[in-house]
Amino acid sequence: MTTMTLLGAFDIITPDPGLFIWTVLVFLILLWLLNKFAFGPIKDALKKREEGIADALHQAQKAREEMANMKADNEKILNEAREERSRMLREAKDAKDQIITEAREKANAEYNRIVDEAKGAINNQKMAALIEIKNNVGNMVLEVSEKILRRELDNKADQEQYIKQLVDEIKVK
Amino acid sequence: MAGQVSAASEGKYDAKEFAMHHVADAHEWHIVGGLTIPLPCIVIHDGLHVFLSNKMPSAHHGEAAEATEEAHEAVTDNIHADGVEGTMVVEHHETAEHTAHHETYNGFYYSESGRIVHEDGGFTLDLSITKNVATLLIVSIIMLLVFTSVAKAYKRREGEAPKGLQSFMEPLILFVRDEVVRPNLGKKSDKYLPYLLTVFFFIWISNMMGLIPIIANPNLSGNIAVTCALALMTFLITNLHANKYYWGHIFNPPGVPGFVKVILVPIEIAGIFIKPVALMIRLFANITAGHIIIISLVGLIFVFGNAGENLGGGLGGAAVAVPFTLFMSVLELLVAFLQAFIFTMLSALFISLAQEDHHHDDHAEHASAAHH
User: A17 — contact with chain B (CB < 8 Å)?
Assistant: First the structure.
């Protein structure tokens, strides 16, 4: 009786064939349905999404690398542009200096030419004026001399004296 | 047993009977007090018989059954007293026992072990929708609803972040895939993932169903027939998908001297069966133990209360039982997850071990290299 009671009480350790058959049947149907309509699609969707994410990350990495390359390129172009600018500035400055020097030289030359011309003109005028003065002076001298001679020749003694004086002057020279 | 039950019906409380009744399967779903949902009984005995369980006579409560028990006890005493005389009396009383079950439904009655049998003693297969079968169907329906809905969410929101139920289930699915299946099965994970996910969620949900008192704690995953069926699945997958190295290791262990093989091969063959049997017993024992502990703690109230006769004792019992039951219930929540995890983990491990490619020459070379 004791053994029977124990076995009866611990009936939970003997598998019930009915429940076993039901479990196998229901579990297999459940497994088939879930595989077909739930876990199969979920598994594929998760995989697809993960691949998508991995791909996106990869693309982002690539884009970042491209950006870095572009940045480097930009930097290079910028440096080149900067160099170009400074070169152009330098050239412009050189050109400016050259132009100024040339202009100054030209101006100097022009100035000198103008001054020379002016000097020449002044000299010419001066010479002309001198010649005119000389001519006038000669005429005036002649007139004056004529007048003086006309008056002096009236007086014989003075005439002789003057001639004598002229002769003396010539001797001194 | 019948004596104990009748004693209980007289007002005494039998804790063992109470606990065992609660962890065992039943043909009706006893919710609370007088509320009992009858379940369909399906019996194969000279054809198919389908009827509701409320038509069945209640087990062991019939006066005739009791009388038989008493007679049986008397017989046992007689056997001890006098063998020859006893044998005669046994025969007499055993025929009496068969006919003693006056209360039957079309000849069907509950046997000692709670199964439906026929009074003519012929072959009967009890395929009733018992409390556990009903729970099994409920768990399956829950899983189908939840996971097809999640699968639809994946289809509808392809490539997008999870939302709602999908975002609740995804970490769990990923946990099983990344922490349980992939470390064991590696590249073969995809092939076995649906099976292992089904096993994991089936066990986990079943375990948690057993923790819901309002539906009378159906002890599905703590039933050995259920764990046996689950272990059988893993056993079949493991051995049907095993490669030649696995069988080679069992029937001709490499690098082992002949006389050792004589001992080793039977052990290895036993190992094929021990692994799934361990799976079966581990899940069954853990879940049933949890149920028994909780039901025993609740039983303390009745023990101290002297089955309702002593209110002070009952309150004292409740003061002790309630905190402990709460603690155990929370612990069982952890165990529910843990046991599902262990079963799945070991299943994945067994499947992967049977498919491992062994390179013994390499191993030998490495070993010798290490020695030099």
Answer: yes
Question: How many whole angstroms separate alpha carbon B108 and alpha carbon B84?
Answer: 33
The percent helix, strand, coil of chain A (3-state, each to 5) is 95, 0, 5
Q: Which of A14, A29, A42 sits opposite B150 (nearest CB)?
A: A42
Q: Closest Cα to residue B357, out of B236, B249, B196? A: B249
What is d(CA B349, CA B332) in angstroms, rounded to the nearest whole number? 25
Nearest chain B Cα distance for residue A86, angstroms: 54
Distance CA B70, CA B63 (A): 10
Listed residue (B185, B153, B193) closest to B169, CA to CA: B153
Give dist(CA A85, CA A93) in Å, integer.
Answer: 12
pTM of the model: 0.71
d(CA B210, CA B291): 8
Residue pLDDT, tens place only, B319-366: 888 999 999 999 999 999 999 999 999 999 999 999 887 655 444 444
**B195 and A8 in contact by Cβ < 8 A?**
no
Residue B267 CA from chain centroid, whole number: 27
CB B200 within 8 Å of CB B344: yes
ipTM exceeds 0.85, yes or no: no
CA dist B97 and B91 (Å) reads 10
- In tens, the pLDDT along B245-285 reads 888 888 888 888 888 888 889 999 999 999 999 999 999 99
pLDDT tens, position by position, A112-171:
999 899 888 888 888 888 888 888 878 887 887 777 777 666 777 777 787 788 888 876
Q: Where are the domains positioned within chain A?
A: 17-172
